[in-house]
Amino acid sequence: MLRPDIEQFYKEVCEVVCHIPEGKVLTYGDVARLVGYPCHSRLVARALSSLPAGHHVPAWRVVNSQGRTAPCWPQQQALLEAEGVVFRKAGFVEMKACRWQLL
DNA sequence: AGTTTGACTGGAG
DNA sequence: CCTCCAGCCAAAC
């Protein structure tokens, strides 16, 4: 790990994800950057996939850079659609409209 | 300590 | 739109 407390990293990831408003999404890379790890998108993915059952984190609002849903997690698309996220034909988030703009 | 793996990324075919 | 490939980096094995 890059830092002595990876737990802090996980905590920050959860915090950022919890702040994503309904109908909006963020990419792994964006979350990584927000918590101070610009090149650790995979670590974000690992953090979210390792979350304990019953967590209150809307991890489904995090998608990959192409606006694609996780390959091993088909339910994600349905969850997003239920919140009003716009999807293209084959399961692509319309990032242009739904990516959370922090600027 | 070396190898494999992955809820990634971006580009090419 | 889909798959494959190379680059990437920390965790898991």
List keywords for this structure.
103 residues; mainly alpha; two-stranded parallel sheet; 4% strand; globular; DNA-binding
Structural overview:
- By secondary structure, the chain is mainly alpha-helical.
- It has 5 helices and 2 strands; from the N terminus they run αβααβαα.
- The mean pLDDT is 91.
- It binds a DNA duplex (13 and 13 nucleotides) through helix 2, helix 3 and strand 2.
Helix content: 25-40%
C-alpha-based Rg, rounded: 13 Å
- Spatial strand arrangement across the major sheet: 1-2
Mean pLDDT over the full residue set? 91
Shape: globular
Low-confidence stretches: none
Largest sheet: 2 strands, parallel
H/E topology pattern:
HEHHEHH
What is the assembly state of the chains in this entry?
single chain
Strand tally: 2
Percentage of residues in DSSP E strands: under 5%
The first-to-last residue Cα distance is 29 Å
Our count of helices gives 5
Structural class: mainly alpha
In short:
The chain is mainly alpha-helical and 103 residues long.
SSE topology:
Elements: H1 6-18, E1 26-27, H2 28-34, H3 41-49, E2 62-63, H4 75-82, H5 95-98
Parallel strand pairs: 1-2
The structure holds a DNA duplex (13 and 13 nucleotides).
